[in-house]
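Late entry, written up from scratch paper. The run itself happened at the end of the previous shift, but nothing got recorded in the book at the time, so transcribing now.
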Amino acid sequence: MKPASELRTLPDLLRWQSGRDPDRPFLRYLDRSYTYGSFDARTDELAGGLAELGVGAGDVVSVFLPNCLEFLEAWWAILKAGAVLGPINPAYTGVEAGYVIDHSEAVALVTDARGAGVIASERDGLQHLHNVISIEQGAGDVTLNELGSRGAPTPDPVREPNDLAAILYTSGTTGKPKGAMLTHTNELVNATQGAELVPLGPGERVGMLLPLFHANAQVVTCVIPMMIGCEVVMWERFSASKFWDTVRELEPATISAVPTILAAVLSAPGAPEGGSSLRYVICGAAPLSVEMLNAFQDRFGIRILEGFGMTETTCISSINPYYGDRKAGSIGLPVRGQQMQIVTEAGSVAAPGEYGEITIRGANVMAGYLKNEEATADSIRDGWLHSGDIGYMDEDGYFFIVDRTKDMIIRGGENIYPREIEEVIYEHGSVLEVAVIGVPHEFRGEEVLAVVAARPGAELDADELSEFVAARLAKYKLPREYVVREELPKTPTGKISKGPLRDEFGNIWTAKAAT
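Output as recorded:
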């Protein structure tokens, strides 16, 4: 068994922990559970089944599932087969999922009956996809359990630390998602960095609440706990009304959450009177107000560690420390092994208190965007990843975000890029112009509003347009409302100007959100 210092790939990490204490609890979901040893053995069996299907080193295997044990089984079996994880948002439509599968050239797809049905209309056009593996009978070419029961030998592919471990798709301003390529080194380094900062010991429980297709759930609530030797306890689904009952049942020491979850929990029934198992909550993905942070901590006595990270930096780049000074409203200090700096528009490093773009450098920064050299070159310059977020650093070295990429909308922790929605709306034959903007919302942070203008002589019905878009985009991206105008405001050069629309609808929607 390799010592921890010699871990080169993610499967090395699992085998290392399994060899140290195979009977230590690793994973629990509903009435099923795994120890480190039994999970290692199960994923060996599944990796053999994947290899028998022809999945080999460097191949991409997509996983199109909600949170469940099978997602984790498939993920680690894919890695052990030498392949690359390609998670897909389970809310995606067939068109959206089909794009990710086709662009990544995935050779196999692990899904459920719903996912198989969603992708069925796209399958004929997916030239690289050879096998659909279902976790349910009758929904694919083969079931996951059948793969595990074939008795195929466990593959032993040659994989290097800088080989790809995952391709995570993140929406972009071009309207099409970009595939962030993460290596085994990226993930092991970032998990090591995160494990150093959290007050957790072997055997303690970490609650998995966020969706597994996100880097956050993968790194913060799976790889980091595995590195420490914790037990991962999975929520079936988030319910504010049942949140505290679930905490009492699962007894996690921590969870990772987004501000909308904290807002819902703050007013949820059944809060404990004398404390709970939760010691701290890591919160990211969207800005958390100082008022919300203080209200949550004061009421429950549970620390909130607000942090910052991106899919492109694997997950964590900065965090307010559990030990030491924490500053409300700050995204904290850079983690060890990463550099963060503020760069002005002129390209110089900003002085403390001066605004500029947050940039990051470290071994956790992605290898680039799949098949997109232009976007990679624009994002990573001279070794520094440019986040697109505007912030500043104070005299103590704590970072603060004051703005973000102008057009991006963060709704309940999900990044939504208006251009992608606008391109779908433009497919409607009656639409001449459209501007999608974010408007303030008390609990979700922002909501999505589409302002549209009809082609000359055409009639545009907002309800009909809503149905048209809903058939083409995941639910979380859908505009909350469509406003029909004769024309949209323009800049002097004739481009649609969103500034006046934000000014017009910002106050109105703030008032709506408060009612």
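The chain has 15 helices and 27 strands.
(Scratch paper discarded after transcription.)
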